[in-house]
């Protein structure tokens, strides 16, 4: 199967995939508590990878919300929705399902391409041999 055949097959499922992803995101957001979905993350507010969460109802929230809606930094820090990472994961899972559904075709295509390219084949074999060796298996 050629890459264009695989892409054509995936393209026929584009609308179905988008509807599934949209529905999955909608269902995820619907399951969250209302007071939680409005939270805004102030990135690196307390140092690298130490975020501060602004909750609706706090005095600073409306100011932060204004900066967030204007897509501007607040006190030099980026702002993000508390929903961003979970929604990205939901969409990632939808993509994973789609790729898993077509894994046989994708595996066959990639195997064909790997076997057809000697350099890629040699490097792949080196990686496999290294991993086997690291597990204590000796291949001669």
From TrEMBL:
The source's domain of life comes to Eukaryota
Under which name does UniProt file this protein? Uncharacterized protein
Q: What organism does the UniProt record list as the source?
A: Fusarium oxysporum f. sp. radicis-cucumerinum
């Amino acid at each position: 199967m050629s890459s264009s055949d695989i892409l054509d097959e995936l393209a026929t499922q584009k609308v179905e995939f988008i509807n599934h992803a949209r529905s999955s995101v909608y269902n995820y957001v619907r399951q969250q508590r209302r007071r939680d979905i409005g939270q805004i993350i102030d990135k690196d507010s307390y140092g690298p990878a130490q975020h501060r969460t602004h909750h609706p109802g706090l005095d600073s929230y409306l100011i932060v919300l204004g900066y967030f809606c204007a897509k501007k930094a607040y006190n030099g820090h980026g702002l993000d929705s508390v929903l961003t990472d979970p929604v990205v994961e939901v969409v990632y899972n939808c993509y994973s399902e789609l790729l898993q559904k077509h894994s046989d075709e994708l595996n066959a295509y990639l195997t064909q391409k790997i076997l057809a390219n000697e350099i890629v084949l040699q490097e792949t074999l080196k990686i496999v041999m290294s991993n086997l060796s690291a597990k204590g298996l000796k291949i001669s």
